[in-house]
């Protein structure tokens, strides 16, 4: 059973710019959810709105400016609303490493699939593998502008 998704991409942008694209809600909505409702800061729960796919609650777990940003959510085909910390969830982590003044490596790790209900593990894992490949490409395209 797979418990973790790990992806790495190289982006031609500064570490600060890449981090802002991940941690600043005004920029996150340019490549990931359509909108974010709530205070997108550590210790807060917000809703990612994916329009026709619904809203999913997210708990912002940790942030280290320019290097690391993490949140918890409930993966699966159905959007989740409620307290993320009260149900099985996964941890999504973004590591941003400067390679030069205008180049970064972004490592995404989503872990915790083994803790999900058995009936949703496989579909959640498969859906998020495909989803992160698509979304990280969108992140790179957003930062090319």
Give a verbal description of the structure.
The chain has 145 residues and is an alpha+beta fold. Helices cover 28% and strands 36% of the residues. The protein is built from three helices and seven strands. It has helices spanning 15-23, 25-28, 118-144; strands at residues 4-11, 35-37, 45-49, 55-64, 68-73, 90-100, 103-111. A seven-stranded antiparallel beta sheet has the order 1-7-6-5-4-3-2, with helices on one face. A hairpin with a 5-residue loop joins strand 3 (45-49) and strand 4 (55-64). The longest helix has 27 residues, at 118-144. The protein is globular. The N and C termini lie far apart (39 Å). The mean pLDDT is 94.
List the helices and strands and how they pair.
Layout: E1 4-11, H1 15-23, H2 25-28, E2 35-37, E3 45-49, E4 55-64, E5 68-73, E6 90-100, E7 103-111, H3 118-144
Antiparallel strand pairs: 1-7, 2-3, 3-4, 4-5, 5-6, 6-7
> Structural class, from helix and strand content?
alpha+beta
- The overall average pLDDT, rounded, is 94
Strand content: 35-45%
Characterize the biggest β-sheet.
7 strands, antiparallel
**Global shape:** globular
SSE series: EHHEEEEEEH
Individual helix count: 3
The helix content, as a percent range, equals: 25-40%
Cα radius of gyration in angstroms: 15 Å
Distance between the termini: 39 Å
């Amino acid at each position: 059973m797979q418990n973790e998704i790990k992806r790495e991409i190289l982006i031609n942008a500064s570490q600060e710019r890449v981090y802002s694209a991940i941690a600043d809600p005004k920029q996150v909505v340019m490549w990931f959810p359509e909108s974010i409702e709530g205070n997108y800061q550590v210790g807060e729960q917000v809703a990612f709105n994916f329009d026709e796919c619904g809203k999913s609650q997210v708990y912002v777990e940790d942030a280290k400016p320019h290097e690391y940003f993490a949140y918890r959510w409930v993966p699966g085909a159905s959007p989740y609303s409620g307290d993320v910390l009260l149900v099985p969830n996964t941890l999504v982590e973004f590591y941003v490493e400067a390679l030069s003044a205008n180049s970064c490596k972004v490592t995404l790790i989503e872990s915790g699939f083994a803790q999900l209900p058995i009936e949703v593990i496989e579909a959640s894992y498969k859906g998020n593998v495909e989803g992160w490949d698509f979304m990280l490409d969108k992140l790179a395209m957003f930062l090319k502008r």
